[in-house]
Design goal:
heterodimer, A: alpha+beta, 7-stranded mixed beta sheet, 5-stranded mixed beta sheet, 22 helices, B: alpha+beta, Ubiquitin-like (UB roll), globular
C-alpha cells in the first residue's frame, strides 16, 4: 500500500462506521429472551451426564455399565468404544472427549449416560463400575520435564532436539525462534537483567457452562444446538467422531455466554450425539461449573527465564527467553505463540526464544485470549521494567527507544507493515494517568503487549428483500457484539440505514465453512467478507438499474444507497434506491443477493500499552488496583463502545490472572478449587473504572483499516499489574498470582534481608 | 416421594406447579415454567446469574428450593419490562453497551433493580458493592456500573 492510499484510509469519512448504534440482540439479552446453550429443549428429550475420572492418572482396566443400564429410566450408556476412529488431527481431541485405555487427569471423561431426568442420570453414573489401576502422576511443568517424571504417553519422543531421544518423555517439542547472535549481543551490554518467572494455570471463566442438545435419527441425520465459538468446527469434529457425513449433521450456534477461546473445541457435543444415536431420542448435556473447571480447557501453567541486555543509554543489545508451558494431558500448549510474541514489541538485532511444549496430568488446555502471549509478556515486560530501573530510564522511554515500527524485522520472522506501537506508547506517556501523583504504598506499572490477529476461511451471504431491508447471514458466532459491527459495515457499504440490516448467525448447512470466532478475526475477516458481499450485491443492483434504463452496466455507479448514471454521457435518469430496485427484482431477473467466500489474508497485528496503579497493604500483602488505563491500536474502531468493551474485559481478566486466579492441585493430583468460590474471578467491588484510549493506525489489509481488538488487551496486564505491585511493595515479584500471602512473604523476606 | 404442589406468585401472576422436594427454584423456573431468563452459572450461589427477587430480596434461585416459594412473591427478568416498554435499567444497559455475551445480564439487571429500589442515588462504590455478587467475565464491569448510575439518574428524574 502506498503512503497516499494509507492516508486516504486515515482521512476517509464514514457515515455509520465509527458510530455507536444499539446492538441488534440487545433487547433479547436484557429481557431474558435470548436463547443460550442450556435454554433449548426438544420433544422426548433425555438428559445426559458424564462420568469423570477421580484419578489424575490411571489405567482403565474395564467399565461395567450393566447396573446402570438396568436402572429404570436409563436409555443409553456410551464409552470410547462408541466413537469412530478419527484422523491424527482430531485424535487428541477425541481421546480428551472420552478416555480410552488411560484416564489422564482428574475430570477426564470415561463414560456417559442418558436418562429420562437429570436425577436418574446422576444415579446411573454412580452405578457404573470402572476398574482403575492408579498410576503415578505429575502436574507441575518443570517436574513433568524431569528425567524421573511419570510419562503420560509411552509414544511421545521429544521432537526438535538432537540426537533424537530414545526414551519417551513429557516434552512434546523444543522450538527456537529469533535472529542475530545473542551471545555477542550480551557482550555489548552495559546492564543485563535475568529473572525466572512462573504463572499459574487460569481458566477462561465464561459464566455459561458448556451446553448442547443433540439429536441423531434412525436415518443417520443429525442436529446439534450448542454454545460454541465455531459451529463449523464442531460439526467437523462431531461428524468425524460419529462417522457421519458432514452434510448429515446440521449445527446451530446458540447465543454464547462467553468463550474467550475456551469454546473453540468439543467436549460434550460428540457425547450428546452418541447418546442420542444409541437412545433414539434427543439428548441434552450441560456441564456443571465443577466440570467446567475440571474438564474443560484452562490455559497453561508456565515457567520462564528471560534475560535482556542493554547499553546505558537504553538500547537493547540482546534478548533471550526460555519458555516451558504445560498444556495438560495432550500436546499443544501455546508455548510457541508465547515464544513468537515475547519480544515482538521490540526492534532487536539479537533475539532468541526457546519453547518447550510439555504434557502433565491436567485437563487439555484450550485457547485463552491471545494464547501464550500474556505469560511471555509478563516475563519480558517485568525484565524491561527492572532494566529501566537499573539504568535510571523512564519505562516508556526505554520502550520507545527500542520500539518496533513499520519495516522492523519482528522477533518471530516477518517484517512489520504499518503498525501502531509507538503511537500507543506516546499516547500512554501523554495520558494524565501517567503523571498523576501516587500515595504511600502505591506503585505504578506499565507494560506493552503484542498479538498477531488472524484471518481465515469466511463465507457470507447478503440477501436483499423486496422492501429494501437486508438479511446478512454470517457464520462466525457473535461473541462480543459482532452483529452490530457487521450491520454497520454492510450499511456503510450499501449506503442504507443500519436499522435496515438484520444480521444472523447461519447454521452449518446454510453457509460454506467458516473458521472459528477466534484469533480476533471476526471484525476483520467477517467484516471483510461482509463488505465484499455488499459490493457483490451492489454490482448486481447496478446491473438491474442499467437494464431498467437501457444503458451499459459500466455506465452505472452506486452512491449513497442509489444507482446513478456514471456521468452526463450515460444519460439523464432519476437515481434508483436499493429499495426501489429490490422491489422490482422479481421482474428484472429474480432475487438479488451478494456473496463472498474467502480465506482472509492481511489481518493487521496490534499492540497495546497499559498503565496501572496499585496499592499494597504492607500488613496483609493484599494488592488493590486503584487506576487502570488501556491504550491500544484498533486500526479502525467500527463500533467504539464494543472496542472499549474488549479493552476493558481483557484488562480485567488480566487483573484476575495477575492477582487471584489459579488452578490449585493437591498432592493427589486432584483440582482443589473447582468452583467460583475458591477460584476467584474479579468482582465489581475489586475494580476501578477501566479507562481506554483507542489508537487508530489503519490496517492496509482491510478496506476500512480494521485490526482485531479482542486479544491484545489481555497481553500487557499481567506484567503491568506485577510491575505496579512490585513498585508498591518495593520488591520484584516474579510468581503469579500475586496473592496476599505471596506478596507478604516477599515483603517480609526483603525486610529480613535489610536487617541482615 | 410424591411431588409437592406449590402455589406462588411470579411476576404478579398466580402460578401453580409440581416439584420434587430437592428441586431448586431455578430448575422449576427454567425446566417447568419455561422462564429461562435466569441462568445457571455455578449452582453454588457464587455467580449470581440465577438472581431473582423473592419477597423484595435478591436471591440466588439455585440456592432456594422450589417448594420454598409457596405463598411468596417472585420477580424474574421476564417481568422487568412493562410489555414493550423497557425498564430504564434495560434501556441503559443497551445504550451503554453494558453487555457483551449477555449471559450474566438478567441476573445483574435483577440485582441492580433491587439496589436502586433501596438506594435511588448510589455512589459508584455502592453500585460496585451492590453488584459484587454477580460475576461478569466480559465487560470488566466499567460499562455496567456506568449504565446503573445513568439509569438511577433517569429514574430519579422521572419521579
Amino acid at each position: 500500500m502506498t503512503a497516499s492510499s494509507e492516508n486516504a484510509l486515515k482521512e476517509r469519512q464514514f457515515k455509520i462506521v465509527g458510530t455507536r448504534p444499539l446492538r441488534p440482540d440487545g433487547i433479547d439479552k436484557v429481557t431474558g429472551r435470548a436463547r443460550f446453550g442450556a435454554d433449548m429443549t426438544a420433544p422426548g428429550m433425555l438428559i445426559g451426564k458424564v462420568l469423570r475420572s477421580p484419578h489424575a492418572h490411571a489405567r482403565i482396566r474395564g467399565i461395567d455399565a450393566s447396573k446402570a443400564l438396568a436402572l429404570a429410566g436409563v436409555k443409553a450408556v456410551v464409552t470410547h468404544a462408541d466413537f469412530s476412529k478419527v484422523g491424527a488431527d482430531l485424535d487428541d481431541v477425541s481421546c480428551n472427549v472420552m478416555a480410552r485405555d488411560k484416564a489422564l487427569y482428574d475430570g477426564h471423561a470415561v463414560a456417559a449416560v442418558a436418562a429420562v431426568s437429570g436425577a436418574v442420570a446422576a444415579k446411573a453414573l454412580r452405578l457404573i463400575d470402572v476398574s482403575y489401576e492408579i498410576l503415578p502422576h505429575v502436574t507441575d511443568v518443570e517436574a513433568a520435564m524431569g528425567a524421573d517424571a511419570p510419562v503420560l504417553h509411552e509414544d511421545m519422543f521429544t521432537s526438535g532436539i538432537r540426537p533424537k531421544p530414545d526414551r519417551a518423555s513429557n516434552v512434546v517439542h523444543r522450538h527456537e525462534f529469533g535472529h542475530g547472535d545473542v551471545a555477542q549481543g550480551f557482550e555489548q551490554a552495559d546492564v543485563v537483567v535475568e529473572r525466572h518467572f512462573t504463572t499459574a494455570a487460569t481458566h477462561q471463566g465464561y459464566i455459561e457452562p458448556h451446553a448442547c442438545l443433540g439429536s441423531v435419527g434412525p436415518d443417520g441425520q443429525g442436529e446439534l444446538w450448542c454454545c460454541t465459538q465455531g459451529h463449523f468446527y464442531v460439526r467437523n469434529a462431531c461428524a468425524a467422531m460419529l462417522g457421519m457425513d458432514l452434510s448429515h449433521l446440521r449445527v446451530t450456534a446458540s447465543e454464547i455466554g462467553g468463550g474467550f477461546g475456551g469454546k473453540t473445541t468439543v467436549f460434550i457435543e460428540p457425547v450428546a450425539l452418541a447418546l442420542s444415536r444409541k437412545a433414539g431420542r434427543p439428548v441434552k448435556v450441560v456441564m456443571s461449573r465443577e466440570e467446567v473447571f475440571r474438564a474443560s480447557g484452562p490455559t497453561s501453567s508456565t515457567a520462564m527465564t528471560v534475560k535482556i541486555g542493554a547499553t546505558r543509554d537504553g538500547r537493547i543489545t540482546a534478548a533471550e527467553a526460555e519458555l516451558k508451558f504445560q498444556g495438560g494431558a495432550f500436546a499443544g500448549s501455546p508455548v510457541d505463540l508465547g515464544a513468537m510474541t515475547a519480544f515482538a514489541c521490540y526492534d532487536l538485532k539479537n533475539v532468541k526464544t526457546v519453547a518447550y511444549d510439555v504434557v502433565a496430568n491436567r485437563p487439555k488446555q484450550a485457547a485463552y485470549r491471545a494464547p501464550g502471549a500474556p505469560m511471555a509478556a509478563f516475563a519480558v515486560e517485568g525484565v524491561m521494567d527492572e532494566l529501566a530501573g537499573k539504568i535510571g530510564m523512564d519505562p516508556i522511554a526505554l520502550r520507545l527507544k527500542n520500539a518496533a515500527e513499520a519495516g522492523t524485522q519482528s522477533s518471530y520472522g516477518p517484517k512489520f507493515g504499518p503498525i501502531g506501537f509507538v503511537e500507543t506508547l506516546v499516547a500512554a506517556r501523554e495520558h494524565a494517568h501517567y503523571s498523576a501523583p501516587l500515595g504511600p504504598h502505591q506503585g505504578r506499572g506499565v507494560a506493552s503487549g503484542f498479538w498477531f490477529n488472524f484471518g481465515g476461511q469466511t463465507c457470507v451471504s447478503l440477501n436483499l428483500h423486496a422492501d429494501g431491508s437486508v438479511a446478512l447471514a454470517v457464520g462466525t458466532p457473535d461473541i462480543g457484539g459482532s452483529r452490530a459491527s457487521m450491520g454497520q459495515m454492510a450499511a456503510e457499504e450499501l449506503g442504507i440505514d443500519y436499522d435496515k440490516i438484520h444480521t444472523i448467525i447461519a447454521d452449518t448447512s446454510s453457509l460454506g465453512y467458516n473458521d472459528i470466532s477466534e484469533g480476533s478475526r471476526v471484525t476483520f475477516s467477517t467484516g471483510l467478507a461482509t463488505i465484499q458481499a455488499a459490493r457483490d450485491a451492489i454490482t448486481k443492483l447496478c446491473g438491474r438499474a442499467a437494464q431498467f434504463w437501457g444503458i451499459p452496466e459500466d455506465a452505472v455507479v452506486w452512491e449513497d444507497g442509489h444507482a446513478r448514471p456514471a456521468g452526463a454521457n450515460a444519460g439523464d435518469f432519476e437515481p434508483l434506491s436499493l429499495a426501489e430496485i429490490a422491489a422490482t427484482a422479481a421482474k428484472t431477473g429474480g432475487p438479488i443477493a451478494g456473496h463472498c467466500e474467502i480465506s482472509a489474508e492481511g489481518a493487521g497485528v496490534s499492540f497495546a500499552t497499559h498503565i496501572v496503579d496499585a496499592e499494597v497493604d504492607p500488613e496483609t500483602g493484599r494488592a488493590q488496583i486503584l487506576r487502570y488505563t488501556v491504550v491500544q491500536d484498533a486500526g479502525k474502531a467500527i463500533h467504539p463502545s464494543y472496542v472499549e468493551g474488549q479493552y476493558q474485559g481483557g484488562a480485567v481478566q488480566g487483573i484476575g490472572w495477575a492477582l487471584n486466579e489459579e488452578y490449585i492441585y493437591g498432592d493427589d493430583g486432584r483440582l482443589q478449587n473447582p468452583s467460583f468460590l475458591d477460584y476467584r474471578i474479579p468482582v465489581a467491588s475489586d475494580l476501578p473504572m477501566i479507562d481506554t484510549v483507542i489508537v487508530e493506525v489503519p490496517n492496509p489489509g482491510h478496506p476500512y483499516g480494521v485490526r482485531g481488538v479482542g486479544e491484545t488487551s489481555i497481553v500487557p496486564p499481567l506484567a503491568a499489574v506485577a510491575n505496579a505491585v512490585s513498585a508498591a511493595a518495593g520488591v520484584r515479584l516474579t510468581e503469579l498470582p500475586l496473592s496476599p500471602p505471596r506478596v507478604l512473604e516477599a515483603i517480609d523476606g526483603m525486610a529480613a534481608e535489610d536487617e541482615a | 416421594m410424591a411431588p409437592i404442589t406449590v402455589t406462588t406468585t411470579i411476576n404478579g401472576e398466580a402460578v401453580s406447579y409440581l416439584c420434587e422436594g430437592d428441586e431448586t427454584l431455578l430448575d422449576v423456573l427454567r425446566d417447568r415454567l419455561g422462564l429461562t431468563g435466569a441462568k445457571e452459572g455455578c449452582s453454588t450461589g457464587d455467580c449470581g446469574a440465577c438472581s431473582v427477587v423473592l419477597d423484595g430480596r435478591v436471591v440466588c434461585s439455585c440456592l432456594v428450593l422450589g417448594a420454598e416459594a409457596a405463598g411468596r412473591e417472585i420477580e424474574t427478568i421476564e417481568g422487568m419490562a412493562d410489555g414493550e416498554t423497557l425498564h430504564p435499567l434495560q434501556e441503559k444497559f443497551i445504550e451503554h453497551a453494558a453487555l457483551q455475551c449477555g449471559v450474566c445480564t438478567p441476573g445483574i439487571l435483577v440485582a441492580a433493580q433491587v439496589l436502586l429500589a433501596r438506594n435511588p442515588s448510589p455512589s459508584e462504590e455502592e453500585v460496585r458493592f451492590g453488584l459484587a455478587g454477580n460475576l461478569c467475565r466480559c465487560t470488566g464491569y466499567d460499562k455496567i456500573v456506568r449504565a446503573v448510575l445513568d439509569a438511577a439518574d433517569t429514574m430519579r428524574d422521572g419521579q
